[in-house]
Amino acid sequence: MKRVGVFVCHCGTNIAGVVDVARVAEESRDFPGVEYAADYKYMCSEPGQDLIIKAIKEHKLDRIVVAACSPRMHENTFRKCIEKAGINGYFVEIANIREHCSWVHTTEKEKATEKAIDLVRMAVAKAIKDAPLQKATIPVTDRALIIGGGIAGIQAAIDLANAGHVVDIVEKGPSIGGKMAQIDKTFPTLDCSACILTPKMVEASGHPNINLLTYSEIEKVEGYVGNFNVTIKKKARSVRMDVCTGCGICTEKCPIKTESEFELGMSQRRVIYTPFPQAIPNKPVIDRTKCTFFKNGKCGICSRVCAANAIDFEQQDEFLVEKYGAIIVATGFELFDYSVYGEYGYGKYPDVITGLQFERLVNASGPTAGKIKRPSDHQEPKNVVFIKCVGSRDIAKGKSYCSKTCCMYTAKHATLVSEKIKDAKVYIFYMDVRTAGKGYDEFYNRTRENYNANYIRGRVSKIYQSGDKLIVRGEDTLISQPVEIEADLVVLATAMVPQLDAAALAQRIGIGYDKDLWYTEAHPKLAPVETHSQGIYLAGTCQGPKDIPETVAQASAAAAKACGLLSKTEMLTEPIVSAVDEKTCAGCGLCVPICPYKAIDMKAIQERVQGITIERKVADVNSSLCQGCGACTVACRSASIGLKHFTDEQILAEVNALCL
Amino acid sequence: MKQEEKEWEPKILVFACNWCTYAGADLTGLSRLQYPPNVRILRVPCSGRVNPQFVIKAFQNGVDGVLVAGCHPGDCHYHTGNYFTRRRFLLMRRLMAFIGMEPERFQNRWISAAEAPKFKQTMTDITEEIRALGPNRKLRNTQWNS
After folding, report:
1. Can you spell out the DSSP letters for A238-258?
2. Is the minimum CB–CB distance between A202 and chain B shorter than 8 Å?
């Protein structure tokens, strides 16, 4: 007979304020198998855990039920706790009477108490059926994959590489650098973005432990923590990386021009190009969708002028399959498509631009060589209007969240305008000003006080052209007066949104995302860089809007987590896996195709039946591939395959206990 | 109405997958969103782990409604588990109709870890739906039927 101990946690008043914890403990003493029950203020605290250990020894308990918070929070804590008392960690069951009871039935104390008693009864029934489980070990491949070569990916790669691990960065564009490479200055220090980024790009490209795979995409991710098998598509560059010297003559001679993505359509690039002068690798790529040679076989000038014979029109996409121990996802963000705000004149008025376009406009290597000129007639604007929260904090047309960086970058843009155009007037339409960050509020105050940026609280209702001016019409809600400003240039602080292919990529990698398609962390507070898929970590704005310091900090955190994994040659695995009862397995093989991890194979076993040795086939689970989903258990017609810790018997015990 | 029926409260069993719906239920608690105390959540690794046997057993034991909830199709932590759930669910509903039981007593929903309001709403709706159907008498074991 099993001897169960029940420990009911008050969680301060989180549980005890609603649920009658003493009654839960008292009633649970009568459940079959329960030897001992107690309640305590904080079970997870050291005295709480000591209480459990003491009770195990005193009352010879061999199964433990803790009625407390979610098992997702403290299951591990209590597993370790009972191991200290000398019993198997998998002999603990948690009844979630906080998240699933006291917090959601706050006003119904009696019913919440009854529900808590039910939940404990279910947990006791399961605990009695629990079997001891042992962790096994699997090897870890000492190599990390970083998806995305922006500042987050670069920082994580450098940290990992410096710790002695081999890292591959896969970047879909022709160069690493990401959005930070497009930014002119960084707030609040007004450092030149490229001056602090390019040394890091160079460090990453020259590091013996880092391999750059630019112009490449993730095709498929298979495997599991420590042993991911990743298929990477190296898109055909049409330029042989091994022989190209990066001299740039091909780019110079290429006769076809097209819009530059890096300059956000404000200037042109050639069809064979490097996205920007400091690009790494500094080797060009042919844009096959625009190149006339690929369209109709005419031209081929680049190939003729190339002294190194590096142009290869025949090049095909290549597929690499590599093995990795850890993956860091750092795919970054895109800008909200503000065309839904028809009233701002998107596409109609060339002098309505986005914040990122403005960054290019003030950048010394940008399309205007750093002189602020408006796109329509290249005149210097005197009145510049900034509109914040375009797409952010707008449930009706945009996104519900705050994009976090726009308040600061708009303040930065305002100072840059005032510095470059002495007689300029700057107007900023805002809803709120949010400047939480070191030195941020000081920067914002300086913008208002020393640079005379005119902050107007209210949304803009309409922008229209009148002569060569844009009339910006809005309301100053602080004085309840309509405002109309004759602007030469309007800059929209557009929201950060995930990459267009964020959901598709998440599904390929096997990680979760939220309603806005930002990737979700394992826990918003306690596991902010982990995902629910072990061995896969998040860095930067693929998780949500962030500024550069936050992105870099998170990238280093993700790298530290990956280091922790890669520094071991082998790791412990969860023992919650499927197992086959070979005696009853009929060898039908129905479980084989249902397994998403290809963890089940058929094997031959020998058996003696009535004195004759026969050979028959049975299913066989590879426990290091099995992730414990249990899909196979339902497919099996003879119930010969079971998921440990969630066996039919255990789940049915819970179902039965609910109705006692 | 008999006294027993007046006091009757539906008992609903929710099989919640560890990665989406269970986490969604946790977030509902964390957000202090209130729902009827009639539901009991049973954690399973994946909605695909739920054997129809568990559902039948629950009805035999006198549960009034069963909900199997997991990740949205395409978002399964185990890639494909919820597709199996979906197929099984359709079969189960047909079987229930066949034996003369209200198929509405057995439901299936996709609730992600981020959808606390949806979790709350689903629990509220399902409790009311089952309440409207009345107690489960059809499949219930006579030994529990006293």
Report:
1. SB-TTT-----HHHHH---EE
2. no
Q: Which amino acid is located at A507 in the chain?
A: Q
Q: Do residues A401 and A546 make contact, with C-beta atoms less than 8 angstroms apart? A: no
The contacts of residue A379 (CB under 8 Å, 6+ apart) are: A373, A468, A488
Residue located via tokens 């096997």: A510
The Cα A198–Cα A202 span in angstroms is: 6
pLDDT tens string A88-146: 999 999 999 999 999 999 999 999 999 999 999 999 999 999 999 999 888 999 999 99
B32 and A114 in contact by Cβ < 8 A?
A: no
CA A77 vs CA A93, A94, A538: distances in Å: 12, 11, 25
**Which parts of A269-343 fold into alpha helices (H)?**
292-296, 301-305
Which pair of tokens denotes residue A204?
A: 């990453």
For residue range A61-94, list pLDDT tens digits in order. Answer: 999 999 999 999 999 999 999 999 999 999 999 9
Q: Using the beta-carbon criterion (under 8 Å), do A72 and B78 form an inter-chain contact? A: no
ipTM here: 0.94
DSSP letter, residue A427 = E
pTM over 0.80: no
Alpha-carbon gap: B65 to the closest alpha carbon of chain A (Å) = 12
Looking at A395-518, which runs of residues are DSSP E strands? 425-430, 454-457, 460-466, 469-476, 481-487, 489-494, 496-498
Rounded CA-CA distance A485/A462 in Å is 11
CB spacing of B45 vs A658 below 8 angstroms: no
